[in-house]
Amino acid sequence: MEFPTGFDLKAIRTFTFVVELGGMTQAAQRLEMTQSSVSQTISNLEEAIGSALFDRTVRPIALTPTGVTLYDHSRDILAAAGDTLQALREQQGRRLTSLTLGMPESFANTVGPMLAESLDRYASRWRIWSGISPENHDALMNHAVDMIVTTSDELDLAGRIGDPPAAGRTFRTGLSGRL
């Protein structure tokens, strides 16, 4: 879905402050903005939505039905955005305790050490499990290894690996680059 200009987190946050603080002047003070900037943000949001959010004919200003709907959803939107930002910040610097990588023996003997060294930032401890591809595939399916290096497409037909996360999805990714 494409969002119109003016319908963004900053505008929704500003709108929420106006509602909760009871006016644009109060919201401007709390947000350290000018009253004019708050008013313009609300006008842009109303233009993006295509409907008035406030009934400006009454004092204090009151929400229109559209404003009530946006306010009801705005708290969830801002909470989800805050949770997302927190999760992203927590993810920075997070490393796995250990990672076991399965790969063909020829690859493990030649490129494996460089691969483990170049990916050291992702795990505190590394183990390389080497063997023929069918053994590595079985090890992955049985959780003996965390990931494998393979050129086979045999796993494309395997479906889910063990008991995946609650979402029930498996992900296929390719890693390429210069070692």
Radius of gyration: 26 Å
Q: Look at the structure and give the mean pLDDT.
A: 80
Query: Which percent range fits the helix content?
Result: 40-55%
Low-confidence stretches: 162-179
The count of β-strands is 5
Strand line-up in the sheet with most strands: 4-3-5
- Main sheet? 3 strands, parallel
**What share of the residues does DSSP label as strand, in percent?**
5-15%
Structural class by SSE content: alpha/beta
Summarize the structure.
This protein has 179 residues and is an alpha/beta fold. Helix content is 47%, strand content 12%.
Structural features, described:
It is a single chain. This protein is α/β, with parallel strands linked by helices. Helix content is 47%, strand content 12%. It is built from 7 helices and 5 strands. The protein has a 3-stranded parallel sheet. It is elongated. The chain starts with 8 loop residues before the first helix and ends in a 31-residue tail after the last strand. The C terminus is likely disordered.
Which keywords apply here?
three-stranded parallel beta sheet; 7 helices; alpha/beta; 5 strands; 12% strand; disordered C terminus; two-stranded antiparallel ribbon; single chain; 179 residues; elongated
Describe the secondary structure blueprint for this structure.
Layout: H1 9-21, H2 24-31, H3 35-49, E1 54-55, E2 62-63, H4 65-91, E3 96-103, H5 105-110, H6 112-118, E4 123-130, H7 133-141, E5 147-148
Helix pairs in contact: 1-2, 1-3, 1-4, 2-3
